[in-house]
Amino acid sequence: MSREEIIQALRANVDRAVRVTFVDGITELVTVVNLDNEGFVNQVGDEFFWTVFENVSEVQSESERI
Q1: Cα angle: 64, vertex 61, 13; to 5 degrees
Q2: From CA 57, how far away is CA 46, in angstroms rounded?
Q3: Which of 1, 30, 32, 35 has an alpha carbon within 20 to 30 A of 47's alpha carbon?
Q4: Is the pLDDT of residue 64 over 90?
Q5: What ranges do the domains of the chain cover?
Q6: Residue 26 contacts residue 38 (beta carbons within 8 Å)
Q7: Is pLDDT above 90 for 33?
Protein backbone atom coordinates (compact mmCIF):
# COMPACT_ATOMS: atom_id res chain seq x y z
CA MET A 1 0.00 0.00 0.00
CA SER A 2 1.13 3.54 -0.59
CA ARG A 3 1.59 5.97 2.28
CA GLU A 4 -1.63 7.77 1.28
CA GLU A 5 -3.60 4.51 1.17
CA ILE A 6 -2.31 3.62 4.65
CA ILE A 7 -3.32 7.04 6.01
CA GLN A 8 -6.74 6.81 4.36
CA ALA A 9 -7.37 3.32 5.79
CA LEU A 10 -6.29 4.37 9.28
CA ARG A 11 -8.33 7.58 9.18
CA ALA A 12 -11.43 5.60 8.14
CA ASN A 13 -10.96 3.27 11.12
CA VAL A 14 -10.32 5.57 14.09
CA ASP A 15 -11.67 3.86 17.25
CA ARG A 16 -11.86 0.53 15.38
CA ALA A 17 -9.71 -2.57 15.18
CA VAL A 18 -7.49 -3.04 12.14
CA ARG A 19 -4.80 -5.51 11.15
CA VAL A 20 -1.54 -3.69 10.59
CA THR A 21 1.32 -5.36 8.78
CA PHE A 22 4.65 -3.73 9.56
CA VAL A 23 7.59 -3.50 7.17
CA ASP A 24 9.36 -6.26 9.15
CA GLY A 25 6.50 -8.67 8.30
CA ILE A 26 4.85 -8.74 11.72
CA THR A 27 1.05 -8.38 11.68
CA GLU A 28 -0.89 -7.18 14.73
CA LEU A 29 -4.51 -6.43 15.52
CA VAL A 30 -4.59 -2.88 16.90
CA THR A 31 -7.17 -0.22 17.67
CA VAL A 32 -6.50 3.08 15.91
CA VAL A 33 -6.68 5.87 18.52
CA ASN A 34 -5.72 8.93 16.45
CA LEU A 35 -3.32 10.09 13.77
CA ASP A 36 -1.54 13.16 12.47
CA ASN A 37 0.71 13.91 9.49
CA GLU A 38 3.58 11.68 10.66
CA GLY A 39 2.03 8.63 12.25
CA PHE A 40 -0.65 7.23 14.50
CA VAL A 41 -1.35 6.14 18.06
CA ASN A 42 -2.60 2.59 18.35
CA GLN A 43 -3.68 0.46 21.26
CA VAL A 44 -2.89 -3.20 21.85
CA GLY A 45 -4.56 -4.43 25.02
CA ASP A 46 -3.87 -1.82 27.71
CA GLU A 47 -0.76 -0.43 25.98
CA PHE A 48 -0.50 2.51 23.60
CA PHE A 49 2.09 2.83 20.84
CA TRP A 50 3.17 5.57 18.45
CA THR A 51 3.93 4.31 14.93
CA VAL A 52 5.19 6.29 11.96
CA PHE A 53 3.48 5.54 8.64
CA GLU A 54 6.76 4.45 7.06
CA ASN A 55 6.86 1.44 9.43
CA VAL A 56 3.57 0.11 8.00
CA SER A 57 3.22 -1.84 4.76
CA GLU A 58 -0.50 -2.69 4.90
CA VAL A 59 -3.68 -1.92 6.84
CA GLN A 60 -6.78 -4.11 6.68
CA SER A 61 -9.99 -3.36 8.56
CA GLU A 62 -11.60 -6.27 10.33
CA SER A 63 -14.76 -5.77 8.25
CA GLU A 64 -12.71 -6.49 5.09
CA ARG A 65 -11.80 -9.92 6.50
CA ILE A 66 -15.38 -11.22 6.51
Answers
A1: 135
A2: 24
A3: 1
A4: no
A5: 3-65
A6: no
A7: yes
Q: Which fold has domain 3-65?
A: SH3 type barrels. (2.30.30)
* Amino acid found at 2: S
Average pLDDT over residues 2-31: 97
pTM comes to 0.90
- What is the distance between the alpha carbons of residues 2 and 6, in angstroms, rounded to a whole number? 6
Region 1-10: mean pLDDT is: 97
SS3 annotation, the chain? CCHHHHHHHHHCCECCEEEEEECCCCEEEEEEEEECCCEEEEEECCEEEEEEHHHEEEEEEHHHHC
